[in-house]
Design the sequence.
C-alpha cells in the first residue's frame, strides 16, 4: 500500500527547511551474471579494473537500497539525486519504474514522493554501460581513446523539501532557470551587482504567500541581508523571482585570489522559514575577444592542461576528497586552466577549483563521433543544457565547450549548440568554445590541427574570434609528426628511435626520455605563446590515463596514473611567478634540477627549472656555475626559461641547485647519486584533505627503493609487497617499483583512527607508515 502524504499548510512547517543528506551507505550490488548481493558504499565501480584496463567491463549492474519512511517526511516532497550513473540508468521504487536516464556524466533528480510506502521502501537502480550509439559519447568502446567505466560512481543525495520549495535545476527543466541562478551584471573592485534568480514551486493544495530572503556571507560573517516583496503562488504553480544584491568593496574571485562568498536563499512564510539553499559563489567578470581573455578587467594568458577523471582500479568511482587532491596537484603543477576532457566531471572537482583558483572549460561528452539528427544529437543538446544548469554558479567555469571534440558535425548542430549556451546562460559573460572555427565565441584548436607559426600569429586578428590551443604537446610529437622537424633532425643526428622523441613517456624510461618529454612541452608552449592573440593553451595532458581498448596508457601526462610526477611537471611549475603564493598549495620560489645525477646523466646539459632570476649549481660543495636563464629557440616567449648547465664531467655525489631573487637565495634542490638499494621508504603526497573514514575515500601511499643514505634508486624495479591494518588496499597489494617508486590506494574504511601501512621486498629492509582516518 502506498502512502499518499497530505499536502498540509506551509505554516505547519515553521523553521523547517531543505534536508539534504548523502545517501551513499547501505547499498547492495550485483552484476547481471551474479546471484549474490554484496554490501557496498558509494561511490562504487561495478568492476575493479586492472592498472592497464584494455578490456573495460561492460554489462548490466544492479543496485538496491532499503530505507524506512521517516515521520518527518509527512507532507514533504522527497527527491533523490544521482550525481553520476553509468550510462543508462533505470530507477524503480517499490517495484514501480519511475524513470530511465540516458547519459553517465551529468546527474539527474527523481521525485520519489508518490511512490513511497509508509514503512520500508526498496529503491532499485539498473545500470547498462554497454556500447550505445544513441547516448553520448556514442563511439564504440573498441574505438574510443578513453574508458567510461561503470557503476554508481558518484554521490547519491536525498532531498526532503517543503511543498513550497526552491526547485532543483536538473529537475525543473527550464532554460536559464530552476533552482538558484546567480549572475553578475556589474563587477568592479569598488562595487558589485549580483542578480539572484530563484525558482519556487508550490506543490501544496492551497495558495501560499511568501517572500524570498537573500543572505550573503564572507569568511563566516554576514555582509548583506535583503528581503523581497511578498508574493503568492496558487497550487501547482511555479515562478522565477529575480533580486539584486548591491555590494560595496567586494572581494573579487580570480585565479590569484579565489575569494568565495556563501549565498543563502530562503523562503519565508508567516510561519517561518520553510526552505533554504546555500552555495558558494565567486564574484568575477569574464570576457574574451581576439585580443585575449580578461578576468575582472585583467588580460591573462591561461596556462592550462586537460584532465580525465580516472583513478587506478576504481575508474571514476572516487570520493569528493580524492577529486580535491587531484585539483590541488594540478594547481601546484603550475596550471590555472583545466579543460575537462571530454565530458562533464564530478561536481566535487568544480568545488575544489572554485576554492583553489582554477578556471575550467566544461565539455559535453564526445570524441570523434556524431550520429545524425536523431536520439544521439537530441541527447547531446539535452546534456549541454543540463551541464550548464548544473555548473553555472561555479566561478571556476569560464567556457562551455558544446561541440563534439574532433567530430564531423553539421553546421546546424553547431549553431544549435551555440544557441543553447546563449539560452541557458544569457548575458555578456556567456562564452562558448568549439574545435570548429564557426558560430562559437572561441576556437579551441588542437595544435596538431594548426597550420604553422603564421596561423598562430594572424588567425584571431583576421577572424575576430578568440583562439585557445585546446590540446598540445602529445600528438604532434607522436609517431612521425614532430614540430618543425626539430625532433626528426635530432633523431638523425643521435640515431634515436621515434619512441624516444614522443611525449608519451613512462618514468621507467629514464632521465633522457623524461627530459625529452619536458622539452617537447617547452617547445610547444613557447611557440603557442608567440601568437599575437592566443588566450591560452592546454597540454594533453596532466595525468596518464587508460586509453580504452589499448594495451597501454596514454603516458603524455606530467603525472602518471598513480599521481607520481615526471620532470615535465616541474617545467610547468616553474612558469608560475615566484610572487604568487598560497596557503592552499605548494607555491612561491622554486627550483628543480631535472636529473638523477648518475652515470647515465649528461653533465654537459643539466637542465634546471626555476621561476627565479639566477641559478647556481654546486657539486660536492663546490660551485661549478651560476647563470641566467637560457636564451635559445625554445625559450623566446617563456615567462621563466630553464637554465642549462655544462658541468664538464660526471662526478658522483651531491648536486645542489640554488635559485636567487635580487641576488639572495630563494629556493634549493638537492640531488644525490644513488648507491645500491638496501631498504624502503613510505610516504604520501602533501595535502590539506586528510583521509576520511567514510567507507569510500582513499589516499595514495608510495614506497621508494632507497640506498643506505635514503636516496631513491632511480632504476630500481623491485617487487613491493604492501599490507595494511585499519583500512584496506584498493587494488593489488603487490606491485613493481617503477624508476624506484610505486604506490597503492589505501582507505575505504569506516574506522576512525590510526592506520598502519607496511611494505616489504625481498632483500630489502621493510618499513611502515602511520596514517590517520578522520
Sequence:
Amino acid at each position: 500500500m502506498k502512502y499518499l502524504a497530505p499536502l498540509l499548510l506551509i505554516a505547519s512547517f515553521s523553521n523547517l527547511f531543505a534536508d539534504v543528506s548523502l545517501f551513499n551507505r547501505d547499498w547492495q550490488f550485483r552484476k547481471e551474471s551474479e546471484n549474490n548481493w554484496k554490501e557496498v558504499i558509494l561511490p562504487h565501480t561495478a568492476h575493479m579494473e586492472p592498472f592497464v584496463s584494455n578490456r573495460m567491463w561492460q554489462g548490466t549492474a544492479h543496485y538496491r537500497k532499503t530505507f524506512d519512511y521517516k515521520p518527518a517526511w509527512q507532507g514533504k516532497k522527497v527527491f533523490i539525486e544521482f550525481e553520476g550513473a553509468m550510462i543508462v540508468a533505470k530507477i524503480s521504487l517499490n517495484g514501480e519504474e519511475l524513470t530511465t536516464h540516458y547519459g553517465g556524466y551529468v546527474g539527474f533528480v527523481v521525485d520519489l514522493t508518490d511512490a513511497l510506502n509508509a514503512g520500508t521502501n526498496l529503491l532499485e537502480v539498473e545500470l547498462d554501460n554497454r556500447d550505445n550509439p544513441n547516448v553520448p559519447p556514442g563511439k564504440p568502446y573498441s574505438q574510443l581513446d578513453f574508458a567510461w567505466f561503470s557503476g554508481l560512481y558518484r554521490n547519491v543525495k536525498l532531498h526532503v523539501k517543503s511543498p513550497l520549495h526552491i526547485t532543483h535545476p536538473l529537475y525543473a527543466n527550464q532554460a536559464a532557470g530552476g533552482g538558484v541562478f546567480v549572475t553578475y551584471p556589474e563587477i568592479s573592485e569598488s562595487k558589485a551587482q549580483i542578480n539572484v534568480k530563484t525558482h519556487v514551486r508550490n506543490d501544496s493544495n492551497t495558495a501560499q504567500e511568501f517572500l524570498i530572503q537573500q543572505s550573503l556571507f564572507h569568511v563566516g560573517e554576514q555582509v548583506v541581508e535583503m528581503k523581497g516583496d511578498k508574493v503568492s503562488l496558487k497550487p501547482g504553480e511555479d515562478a522565477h523571482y529575480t533580486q539584486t544584491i548591491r555590494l560595496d568593496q567586494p572581494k573579487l574571485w580570480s585565479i590569484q585570489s579565489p575569494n568565495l562568498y556563501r549565498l543563502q536563499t530562503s523562503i519565508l512564510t508567516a510561519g517561518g522559514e520553510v526552505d533554504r539553499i546555500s552555495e558558494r559563489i565567486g564574484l568575477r567578470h569574464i570576457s574574451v575577444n581576439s585580443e585575449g581573455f580578461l578576468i575582472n578587467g585583467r588580460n591573462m594568458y591561461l596556462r592550462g592542461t586537460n584532465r580525465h577523471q580516472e583513478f587506478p582500479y576504481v575508474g571514476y568511482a572516487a570520493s569528493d576528497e580524492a577529486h580535491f587532491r587531484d585539483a590541488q596537484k594540478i594547481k601546484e603543477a603550475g596550471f590555472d586552466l583545466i579543460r575537462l576532457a571530454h565530458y562533464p566531471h564530478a561536481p566535487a572537482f568544480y568545488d575544489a577549483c572554485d576554492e583553489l583558483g582554477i578556471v575550467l572549460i566544461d565539455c559535453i561528452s564526445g570524441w570523434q563521433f556524431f550520429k545524425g539528427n536523431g536520439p544521439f544529437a537530441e541527447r547531446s543538446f539535452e546534456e549541454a543544457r543540463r551541464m550548464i544548469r548544473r555548473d553555472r554558479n561555479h566561478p571556476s567555469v569560464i567556457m562551455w565547450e558544446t561541440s563534439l571534440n574532433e567530430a564531423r558535425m553539421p553546421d546546424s548542430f553547431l549553431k544549435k549548440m551555440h544557441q543553447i549556451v546563449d539560452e541557458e546562460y544569457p548575458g555578456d559573460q556567456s562564452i562558448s568554445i568549439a574545435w570548429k572555427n564557426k558560430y562559437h565565441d572561441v576556437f579551441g584548436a588542437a595544435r596538431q590541427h594548426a597550420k604553422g607559426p603564421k596561423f598562430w600569429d594572424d588567425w584571431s586578428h583576421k577572424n575576430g574570434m578568440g583562439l585557445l590551443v585546446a590540446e598540445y604537446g602529445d600528438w604532434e610529437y607522436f609517431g612521425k609528426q614532430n614540430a618543425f622537424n626539430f625532433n626528426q633532425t635530432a633523431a638523425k643526428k643521435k640515431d634515436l628511435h621515434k619512441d624516444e622523441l614522443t611525449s608519451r613517456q613512462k618514468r621507467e624510461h629514464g632521465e633522457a626520455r623524461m627530459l625529452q618529454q619536458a622539452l617537447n612541452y617547452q617547445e610547444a608552449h613557447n611557440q603557442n605563446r608567440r601568437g599575437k592573440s592566443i588566450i591560452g593553451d592546454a597540454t594533453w595532458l596532466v595525468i596518464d590515463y587508460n586509453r580504452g581498448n589499448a594495451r597501454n596508457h596514454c603516458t603524455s601526462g606530467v603525472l602518471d596514473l598513480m599521481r607520481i610526477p615526471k620532470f615535465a611537471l616541474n617545467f610547468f611549475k616553474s612558469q608560475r611567478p615566484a610572487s604568487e603564493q598560497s596557503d592552499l598549495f605548494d607555491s612561491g620560489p622554486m627550483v628543480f634540477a631535472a636529473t638523477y645525477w648518475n652515470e647515465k646523466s649528461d653533465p654537459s646539459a643539466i637542465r634546471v627549472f626555476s621561476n627565479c632570476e639566477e641559478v647556481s649549481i654546486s657539486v660536492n660543495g663546490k660551485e661549478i656555475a651560476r647563470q641566467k636563464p637560457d636564451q635559445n629557440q625554445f625559450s623566446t616567449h617563456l615567462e621563466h626559461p630553464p637554465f642549462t648547465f655544462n658541468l664538464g664531467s660526471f662526478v658522483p655525489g651531491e648536486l645542489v641547485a640554488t635559485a636567487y631573487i635580487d641576488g639572495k637565495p630563494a629556493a634549493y634542490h638537492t640531488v644525490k647519486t644513488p648507491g645500491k638499494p638496501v631498504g624502503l621508504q613510505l610516504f604520501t603526497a602533501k595535502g590539506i584533505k586528510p583521509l576520511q573514514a567514510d567507507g569510500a575515500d582513499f589516499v595514495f601511499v608510495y614506497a621508494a627503493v632507497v640506498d643506505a643514505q635514503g636516496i631513491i634508486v632511480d632504476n630500481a624495479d623491485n617487487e613491493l609487497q604492501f599490507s595494511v591494518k585499519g583500512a584496506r588496499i584498493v587494488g593489488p597489494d603487490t606491485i613493481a617499483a617503477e624508476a624506484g617508486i610505486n604506490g597503492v590506494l589505501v582507505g575505504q574504511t569506516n574506522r576512525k583512527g590510526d592506520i598502519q601501512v607496511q611494505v616489504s621486498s625481498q632483500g630489502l629492509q621493510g618499513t611502515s607508515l602511520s596514517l590517520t582516518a578522520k
Observations:
- Confidence is low (pLDDT under 50) at residues 1-18, 479-491.
- The chain has nine helices and 47 strands.
